Amino acid sequence: MVLDGVFNFTWKEPSNKRVKPLSRVTSLASLIPPVRATPLKRFSQTLQRSISFRSESRPDLFSPRPWSRNVPPANTKRRDSKLWSETFDVCVNHMLTSQEIKRQEAIFELSQGEEDLIEDLKLAKKAYHDPMLKLSIMTEQELNQIFGTLDSLIPLHEDLLRRLQEVRKPDGSTEHVGHILVGWLPCLNSYDSYCSNQVAAKALLDHKKQDHRVQDFLQRCLESPFSRKLDLWNFLDIPRSRLVKYPLLLREILRHTPNDHPDQQHLEEAINIIQGIVAEINIKTGESECQYYKERLIYLEEGQRDSLIDNSRAVCCHGELKNNRGVKLHVFLFEEVLVITRAVTHNDQLCYQLYRQPIPVRELVLEDLQDGEVRLGGSIRGAFSNNERIKNFFRVSFKNGSQSQTHSLQANDSFNKQQWLNCIRQAKEKAACAGKAGGLEAHFLVSPNGRRVPQGEAALEQMEQSDCESDCSMDTSELSADCERMEQTNSCESEKQIETNV
Questions:
Q1: How confident is the model at residue 87, as a pLDDT?
Q2: For residues 352 and 119, what is the distance between their CA atoms, to the nearest angstrom?
Q3: Contact 210/357 with Cβ under 8 angstroms?
Q4: How far is the C-alpha of 60 from the C-alpha of 318, rounded, in Å?
């Protein structure tokens, strides 16, 4: 599942522990964990979760391959964790208070994390990027798309590590770090382009895994000791994981810093800086992910196009669901519209073909269904179905004039079902609040000829222009929807009714 806000997501950096193999997973940012991917992806914490992709047609990197080597497992190269009190002279610890020791441990963890990050980024380039380029397993253009601006991040973190080491005393203790962080953290704005590229990078990597040579190379690397049982994407996702960890590391240092310490003010300033940077990158990454998916929507007819999709800047959530006939659907919840699609391959790319007309969130009716309430399509199938197949359903419906839709959708489990319900309810609340706020001022739209006209007049003008271009029944219904929205805006009773429905 993917949540609102820019790119299911465990947020820990690679450790010396063995992780479970990745199962098949889904896109961007979303830009995209060593556990089974859930079908619902939310974007509100994009940077806090790794990007994952899901495609039943894609081969799984960790499933047995006919070309995989049957070799005994190699000894995994472990990364030993280090503590400040164990690294430097223990005698020094007797001269420090318990609080100061904890502060030094937190500062040392920050420094040690930079060393580990630099080592992993260099390893990703040396063990994956360079060999695949030299062996022509991938083209230079493909590798540039997958690895993004990773090269530029290495000197960035080497600079911070050098600064931290310069202020470290011979006994291993560090007096001040706040001023260093305040001066260095703005450099993290360069993460913008790297994180925004992760969705497209993960999609291309998953697609290239279908190539026999790429699959075999990645499998060999995975079996090698240097990988620590981590896939290539785990290494590429390390920078994002490190970025969202900085606020936690700085808060830990601040927590053990006395109120009268000179670092107190600088650390508070540093925390504000990094929180602002993470929030900004989160928004831009969300916009990038949203654009990525919008570009991969396939419309069967022009009448399926909706301005609510075109104007969306974020995906609240998306993921795989099944209808009551067992058909796999990929559902996107944009800010103001629900789009039900089928995953298809088009020009060797994973795309999403619209299954029905987009449903405006404001007119959408959501119903939580009890287990066993849905009847599966087909009498024979229903007769022999087990209880698992009639659980975790919810229903979305929409009716506007001659148009009506009803979809009974099944989530993987009760948790994912609840996530979908929460996301849709929150989207409806936001849409209702936006409608009320809009009712306090005059509604004007920009007409096709560029002049500002009232909403109803603009809808009429758009319909007339559309009638000239094609005979599409959608125009009348869109006009009805627009008129209904205008009437709801001008009526206090309608506003109350909307609020009640929500």
A1: 61
A2: 38
A3: no
A4: 21
The H-or-E segment that residue 367 falls in is: strand 365-368
**Cβ–Cβ contacts within 10 Å for residue 109, how many?**
18
Instruction: Return all residues near 429 (Cβ < 8 A) that are at least 6 apart.
Output: 502
Q: What is the pLDDT of residue 332?
A: 95
Task: Dump strand ranges (E) for 248-314.
Answer: 297-298
For Cα atoms 152, 156, 162, give the angle at the middle one, nearest 5 degrees.
Answer: 145
Query: Residue for token digits 């800086």?
Result: 273
Rg of the chain on CA atoms, in Å: 27
Q: Is the separation of the CB atoms in 424 and 396 below 8 Å?
A: yes
- Structure tokens of 227? 């990988």
- CB contact at 8 A, 485 and 435: yes
Q: What is the pLDDT of residue 388?
A: 54
Instruction: For residue 107, give both structure tokens.
Output: 């500062």
Return d(Cα 202, Cα 222) in angstroms, integer: 17
Q: Are 341 and 359 in contact (CB under 8 A)?
A: no
Measured CA to CA, the distance from residue 96 to residue 323 in angstroms comes to 64
- For 82-157, strand residue ranges (E) read none
The Cα angle at residue 136 between residues 135 and 142, in degrees rounded to 5: 130
Handedness of CA 422, 425, 431, 432 (dihedral sign): negative
Q: Which residues of 67-105 are buried (b: 16+ CB within 10 A; e: fewer)?
A: eeeeeeeeebeeeeeeebbeebeeebbeeeeeebbbbbb
Burial class for 419, CB neighbours closer than 10 Å (0-12, 13-18, 19+): buried
Q: Which of 350, 70, 200, 470 is nearest to 462 (CA)?
A: 470
pLDDT at res. 320? 93
pLDDT at 84: 59
Q: Which residues of the chain have pLDDT under 70?
A: 1-94, 375-389, 437-502
pTM: 0.66
Helix axes 238-255, 263-295, angle to 10 degrees: 150
